[in-house]
Design goal:
Elements: H1 9-13, H2 19-34, H3 41-65, H4 74-90, H5 95-117, H6 122-142, H7 144-147, E1 158-160, E2 163-165, H8 171-194, H9 196-206, H10 208-213, H11 218-244, H12 254-267, H13 272-295, H14 306-321, H15 325-339
Antiparallel strand pairs: 1-2
Helix pairs in contact: 3-8, 3-11, 3-12, 3-13, 4-5, 4-6, 4-11, 5-11, 8-9, 9-11, 12-13, 12-15, 13-15
């Protein structure tokens, strides 16, 4: 068992706890860059899909898992990022400028929406964000001269300094582009958690009353969380548009928002790993169901709602038996092996607690 002996504040906020952890992530990164030589194009496309969902999960995780603000409207910001990136490129901006700017514009729009929306709490906040997803569909249709309306849009080939990238004909190049964006978003998220702002997010999540007493400006902190969350989500939306090849008002529906929220709950709320674990479940579940039907001899039979039903069942099982998600279960297994044979039977027994200061809200 590794014991981290911290002798300064810098030790507490360093990027990697120890050299072993750094080595593990370095090996994982090396495997990710070598993946196009290890698997075929089909599975490489599926891994690319996992990374795109992971970026979107990081965006929602920053708001819901880190700040405690539930959102069922992030599909609207996926759409904003996707359309903003395509429109900016059509206006003549290169991808290397349009793509970051699309995320920034999505973050600005999210911050403006957050000013009235984040005054709500609980179920009322969830209902308000659902309204955003519903309104996004109508707004896309109304802005048909820019968005293409029901007909939708077809994003152009990505060109970076004369280097062409296309999802279908050049899957390895597109994979590397998504991988680089994923690494940047993950490092941004990780460093944000180590900053005073990230600690303020956690304080607001745990208790707004206590955070106020410690000098945290609640409205400003929530607004920044919403804006940064929307910025990352906007980048994921732009990549989703390239991955799909075409998109319209029905691409980013309310179902996407619900799937995103379920994804981070299954993966593990409040952790970067949870976004990636949840993305693996979302991306590979359809393939797993297809393989399962082939094995039982029903591959040619379409079962309406099967994927949604199985995904909902998985969510229910996790809420009942493992509320901390896949990452929480992994932490428990790892801790049990590290403490063996001194691990106690009820070491991870759930404690019933209620924060009395929240009664003042």
């Amino acid at each position: 068992m590794r014991i981290h002996f911290k002798t300064s504040y810098e030790h507490d906020i360093r990027l990697f706890p120890d050299r072993w952890t750094f080595s593990v992530y370095a090996a994982l990164l090396a495997l990710a860059f070598g993946l196009p030589w290890l698997i075929d194009e089909f599975y490489l496309g599926e891994v690319t899909n996992v990374l795109i969902w992971a970026i979107a999960g990081l965006g929602l995780m920053l708001l819901t898992g880190q700040t405690g603000q539930a959102s069922l409207g992030h599909a609207a910001f996926l759409a904003v990022g996707c359309y903003a990136n395509t429109i900016l490129i059509e206006l003549g901006l290169p991808f290397i400028v349009a793509f970051p700017l699309a995320g920034v514009l999505t973050g600005v729009i999210g911050t403006l929406i957050a000013i009235p929306v984040l005054r709500l709490h609980g179920i009322y906040l969830a209902i308000a964000t659902i309204a955003l997803s519903i309104l996004a569909d109508d707004i896309i249709v109304l802005l048909e001269p820019w968005t293409g309306g029901v007909s939708g849009k077809f994003p152009d080939m990505i060109t970076i300094f004369g280097f062409e990238i296309e999802r279908w004909s050049m899957p390895a190049r597109f994979y590397y582009l998504v991988l680089v964006v994923t690494i940047i978003c993950t490092l941004f998220y990780r460093n944000l958690l180590r900053s005073p702002l990230g600690r303020a997010f956690a304080a607001v999540r745990d208790s707004e009353v206590s955070a106020t007493a410690m000098g945290v400006h609640i409205a400003r902190t929530k607004g920044m969380a919403f804006g940064l969350s929307c910025m990352i989500t906007g980048w994921a939306g732009a990549l989703m548009g390239y991955y799909a090849g075409t998109f319209n008002n029905e691409t980013f529906s309310l179902v996407i928002s619900i799937t995103l929220l379920m994804m981070i709950v299954i993966g593990g709320l409040g952790s970067i790993h949870g976004a990636f674990f949840g993305a693996v479940v979302v991306a590979f579940l359809p393939q797993a169901l297809s393989i399962g039907k082939d094995m039982i001899g029903g591959g040619g039979v379409a079962i309406p709602g099967l994927e949604t039903g199985v995904f909902g069942l998985i969510l229910i099982l996790f809420i009942l038996f493992e509320p901390m998600g896949i990452y929480g279960r992994w932490l428990k297994i790892r801790t049990w092996f590290e403490l063996f044979p001194f691990a106690r039977k009820d070491m991870f027994k759930r404690q019933k607690s209620y924060l009395k200061t929240e009664r003042l809200r």
